């Protein structure tokens, strides 16, 4: 994939390299302290060898029973103070929200929007290398300037999550941490299972055990509609023909969420995002790397459908998505359970958040050419069987009537804002870290 060429190799969230220090460092210390007898040394050497060969117990997989909470990294009065301060609402009646994936594209925008209106926000992000971590760090800078502290950690780390819930009584969780990207699922399927399934279950486990339980709003995806042909896509349509593992994990997430709602009384709202774009966006998405490649004079590959038509997307501008997220948080009823016990039925909702006006990818390219004042070098090729679907188109009636969702930005207007940001950010301008 050309757009990933100059990014670091992308192990996504499936990193185990952080896992070793805990066990290994501990044993290194032991080595220094041990008596230098031949047998003891031999035994230790064998034991270390065994540890190195065995699969590492990654910290991201630490269970709640693991008492070795890495106090060095998390915890301590200073850390707790930062966590509490960030999560504390500034306005009366404000929400107290844990935003996972806070340094991600949508996470950054939602976190700052919540903070701006006076809610308390604590961010969580593992800063993985799926795409340029420098962009995530720049977003973190923005968040910090807005008063949002981002805890560096993984949603699979149950001990960390539990600790966060011990320190703060979250009223809401906005769960945006995920392994995104449709095509990358063919390269690193494990990363999707790790984040979108295991990580989500871990978050729900900790949320259901919390007292009080938070209301959880999470990111699902338009990709769950898969190979559906009936348009516009409606929440009541069947969605059981996913075209990518990404889509399958997002659909699985919806089923998993339903069980936590049913068994534990957790209030759950899933938002099916439709190809979200805008400033501070994801470099793995077509509008982003098309911009980069057009500017560099590199050839872009534009997919076409089998009938030689252009593939189309219901591109949705980030500010509209943010409004949808806030609408979902504001209308979410409380969970009914506490401490893992259901007390009554709780809310379970799924909404499409799209723009409801699909645009062919060829048109996207034309708009970019106009905004960049450059002609794209294009190679048109049939849509490969890589997880992409031919078109998406959202029916947003339900979101409109129930959470007040009303998209207002058309693709050209939104791309104009994106291009302006892109030019500032990558030109090294001093203003690059502003909105
Ligand atoms: O709504 C979602 O749920 C998903 O949206 C996004 O997926 P997509 O809609 O597939 O966006 P994106 O990759 O930008 O491709 C856009 C268009 O360009 C076409 N495309 C792509 C690459 C290429 O080289 N050429 C090309 O024509 C391609 O065929 C497509 O028609 C998120 O990445 C995903 O994480 C998820 O959130």
TrEMBL record:
Chief place where the protein resides: Golgi
Catalytic class of the enzyme: isomerase
Domain NAD-dependent epimerase/dehydratase: 97-334
GO cellular component, one term: Golgi cisterna membrane
GO molecular function, one term: UDP-glucuronate 4-epimerase activity
Xref: Gene3D superfamilies: NAD(P)-binding Rossmann-like Domain (3.40.50.720), UDP-galactose 4-epimerase, domain 1 (3.90.25.10)
TM annotation in the entry: 36-53
Keywords in alphabetical order: Carbohydrate metabolism, Golgi apparatus, Isomerase, Membrane, NAD, Transmembrane, Transmembrane helix
Reactions catalysed according to its record: UDP-alpha-D-glucuronate = UDP-alpha-D-galacturonate
Annotated protein name in UniProt: UDP-glucuronate 4-epimerase
Taxonomic classification: Eukaryota, Viridiplantae, Streptophyta, Embryophyta, Tracheophyta
